[in-house]
Amino acid sequence: WEWAGRQDYNLLVIGGGSGGLACAKEAAQLGMKVAVVDYVEPSPRGTRWGLGGTCVNVGCIPKKLIHQAALLGGMIRDAPHYGWDVAQPVLHDWRKMAEAVQNYVKSLNWGHRVQLQDRKVKYFNIKASFVNEHTICGVTKGGKETLLSAEHIVIATGGRPRYPTHIEGALEYGITSDDIFWLKESPGKTLVVGASYVALECAGFLTGLGLDTTVMMRSIPLRGFDQQMSSLVTAYMASQGTRFLKHCTPSRVQKLPDGQLQVTWEDLTSGKENMGTFSTVLWAIGRIPETRSLNLENAGINTNPNSQKILVDAQEATSVPHIYAIGDVAEGRPELTPTAIMAGKLLARRLYGQSLDVMDYSNVPTTVFTPLEYGCVGLSEEEAMARHGEEHVEVYHAYYKPLEFTVAERDASQCYIKMVCLRKPPQLVLGLHFLGPNAGEVTQGFALGIKCGASYEQVMRTVGIHPTCAEEVAKLRISKRSGLDPTVTGCG
Amino acid sequence: RLGSVRGVLVSSPPGRRARLSSPGTGRSSSEAREELRRRLLGLIEGNRVMIFSKSYCPHCTRVVWNPFNVFTYLSFYSSDDGANVQEMLSEITNQRTVPNIFVNKVHMGGCDRTFQAHQSGLLQKLLQEDSTYDYDLIVIGGGSGGLACAQEAAILGKKVMVLDFVVPSPQGTSWGLGGTCVNVGCVPKKLMHQAALLGQALNDSRKFGWEYGQQVKHNWETMTEAIQNHISSLNWGHRLSLREKSVDYVNSYGEFVEHHRIKATNRKGQETSYTAAKFVIATGERPRYLGIQGDKEYCITSDDLFSLPYCPGKTLVVGASYVALECAGVLTGLGLDVTVMVRSVLLRGFDQEMAERVGSYMEQHGVKFLRKFIPVMVKQLEKGSPGKLKVVAKSTEGPETIEGVYNTVLLAIGRDSCTRKMGLDKIGVKINKKTGKIPVNDVEQTNVPYVYAVGDILEGKLELTPVAIQAGKLLARRLFGGCLEKCDYINVPTTVFTPLEYGCCGLSEEKAIEVYKKENLEVYHTFFWPLEWTVAGRDNNTCYAKIICNKFDNYRVIGFHVLGPNAGEVTQGFAAAMKCGLTKQLLDDTIGIHPTCGEVFTTLEITKSSGLDITQKGC
Predict the structure, then answer these.
(1) What ipTM goes with this model?
(2) pTM for this entry
(3) Active site residues of A
(4) Does CATH place domain A372-482 in 3.30.390.30?
(5) B200 and B215, same structural domain?
(6) Which cysteines are joined by disulfide bonds (chain A) (predicted)?
(7) Which residues of A315-328 are buried (b: 16+ CB within 10 A; e: fewer)?
(8) Which of A408, A423, B99, B173 is the most buried (most CB within 10 A)?
(9) What is the pLDDT of residues A411-427, one digit of tens each?
């Protein structure tokens, strides 16, 4: 099998999302001949979008923008406390917001196209599947087939929202996060099913925009995240008007003659059946990797039979040494844009730039953009206890009140910070959890500190910036073990 | 056995070692000697039992490990200037040998004499001897630093008094307990800044689909009332907190009358007097006036602005300090016509590139700048709330003069220390004659060993609330808690709450070049466009991030600068990382949080020296 020099490309990237594009651009920068194939299979509701993948089109970007719209609603309510006379009524026009958000997303799609062109990366809008371990077959929207071959292939096809399989009407009448950001009209009264961060973020901004919103969850919110923080996140949402149906699971969705959706669900606690009517039902019960149509078996690429994700090693290589997988499609990787980007870049540098740096997936910071934002890095309290033993872990915590909340008369009951440390001096910081405004901005810098191996003492020796929320992190004095009251006492 | 003595040996927890670091280099030897003497006297004054020892000396070990395991002692075996310490001690005590032991400020002698003193009962007597002073500590000034110090001392079991008295501003403004930050600084400033940001948010909100009446007006009185209510609750909170910790609070003006004695004068002119073993001066600063015709009569300062009972209207802000720019930014954000008169540079002491960017953003958003002018006269044209004032200003570069009419003139040209009218001369505490600031050593001690100072009045230190709090707390712990940790004034982060916030930590580019030379530095920078600004249609290529790295120290980050929304929230964590030795490599290895502003620092690629374009195109 003599392939060297006979392939069309040095590198072929399947999937034009954050990770794939980063990898392709980096490889092109290093002088390689690179192609990106990207194809968005329309959602069951028919929603489709341009180049850039989940983050740009149906993830981080539109999500944070609509979150911002919801936050602005809160600011409009705060404004009179600060002396602004805002004439009532205050209404929200979904159509106008959606158009603005969608226009911005489209500008990003365009930007990605231009960037690929600038770097001489060949872009194909085709749906790819493996023919053999060096060749893929791409099919255009019109059904035209193209064969492309490359020395190295990177799979970065990401994931798509999962629909429940055994619930009548779920697929016909339900939408997912693939659709919500592209709705032309307001979704109206909405049932969000699921307890993932996607579910809570969507429910949060819908509530913030004034819509009647209910979250239905089978078990715990934000599985995998610190559970104390998670319950504070939902407590705040409840205080802002999001309804929660806990320990409930839907069994049927029916369309009523007036177009409304009637949802039947089972209350797992009482065992009773309940019913409710909604304009929109949004499934946010998880995501499945986009591997089904890739014909991975033609190339001999192994997947995890349960998760359908592609098995990779520390170098991001699959079971076939010259085929790699990065981002949400790879088994055991955090499903986050910046990790995919960095993994893609580092992979290209290892392949073509004589670099040996492998991606470090530990201590990746992240933020959940719920109405009260939750930023975290490192271990949850549960994880720290499990790994090190309760007696070896010290947790410092505090409730605090953001200065801006005072005049606005906002309730700060859920503004809370927790630092999980080893108990033995110098009390290495294992995890930081921050619930409050601008949590992403607050968490980013501390993530570096944790990366540097910061100790509790070092963080405490950092002088605060007054008055900010972030300074509260540098003032965490009360340990959970002490049993002292961690609530704010006005000032100081 | 000395077991019975222990109960009174409350001054220090077990086995703490004080360490003398060598005084700063480049000073004359007489200065260094004076400094050393001051330190040693401070240690003797500050500790119930003070043992100077060498760690290898068996006699010292005998004393230390025998009954005295609850004292502070000092080992100068490893200290660089051990010989100097020994010499100074012999000068003070006529004893060259170690251990050299003091009990309750009385020189005991060596090991044998201390054990003799124990047998004779003298040691116990000395230890039980009650202080002859009314208080262990009197703190003058109830601001951030003073309160922190007082409360910490009280927690450590000391009898503490706080004296606080607000001399009304020339316009008659006065306020409650808590000092500048709470009453006329950070707190009301940030709340007014928030009011201005909400005005911007109202503009943005329409782009995000919110709809309401076109007419949005701002009501100054509603805002100030809400802010003042919050401040009152903070004043009350401070009172309560002092009471809970059994700190005596006296609302009187404190003046030293003799050593260890202070006179307190209340609002009615009634005088009382108190004594204390130790004093902490934390009187802070007040805004400076120009010393021109009409300034005290007609101008206001930041002392007055935040509780001004009427909207200031068209305002001239004089000065280019952060106070000036923050006030100007707030007033503009609330819709007022604002002009800033600047004598020379903006934000002196801050990174000048950042300062100019702060200024240019303000200029683009409606603030007018009059550069290189200084006011020479302020005249009242009309009385009222607000009235009308005529300001005459002259150029700093030529004979040109200009005139303007404003409703309000706000002076923000700097601040003066409140140290000149408190009898410091009576007890010989040195102040800088020119600035009024108090020079202290690295343990916040003045030249008079029992008098300490914290906060804005310190010479060459930072004027920041959290620094004063930290310094105050640590000072109390050193004085009364056997703690040795000193306040670290290096890499202190701060944020200027101008309309576009500016956060920084470490060195400015100018200072970095001065210290490390340009060729040894690499500066990485970029513009960034906050995601929230895109849909809002706000300026691209305005928010800016910059780090300064030392090439020859592993590209360590020695300066961090960010101009953008929530700069304070962004900067704090990076400051913590700088404490842990942040390098460029670590920044690159850290995963960003998407989409935030802070993540821009994890992807900085363009160096300033490359001259490459840093403008953002679309995405």
Answers:
(1) 0.94
(2) 0.89
(3) 466
(4) yes
(5) yes
(6) 55-60
(7) ebbbebebbbbbbb
(8) B99
(9) 999 999 999 999 999 99
